[in-house]
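Encode chain A's predicted structure.
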Amino acid sequence: MANFLSIGNLLCGTLSIVCSVNRELHSAALLILTGVLFDFADGKTARFLGQASYFGKALDSLSDMVTFGIAPVAAGIFLLHSSLYAEVVMALFVSAGAWRLAYYIQWGEKIRPPGMPITMNGLIFPLLFLFNAPVSILIACYFLSTLFMVGPIFLHGSAVS
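Encoded structure for chain A:
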């Protein structure tokens, strides 16, 4: 059951990307927010049913990467009007999300990654999109989110090699 909820999260992220490509940013934002609900429910369900597994953790992380890493960037591409600076910041944002999720898959509950979980992007960016945040605020939030996701991992001294 929990894996189906993870797939629900993945579908929300995928559909959000499709909406972004079609310039339906309101729908894209709402789908990312819905993905947060699926992400919350999958972990709770797996623990409640005693079905937590490595497969489930990996599926959850891959779904999170799409919904909270790539989907916010897809929407941002249409809002930030192409600039080299914005493109570099968004590429770093996706890379930081992947790094954090790989760290979590590797270490899981043994060493909880310090810093901001990637799921927080599922709350931050849809709200910024829905409230028409200025471009400068969006770029700053992508940059800060990147730092908050992985900076504490490096400062903690537990980076996976």
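The chain has a mean pLDDT of 89.
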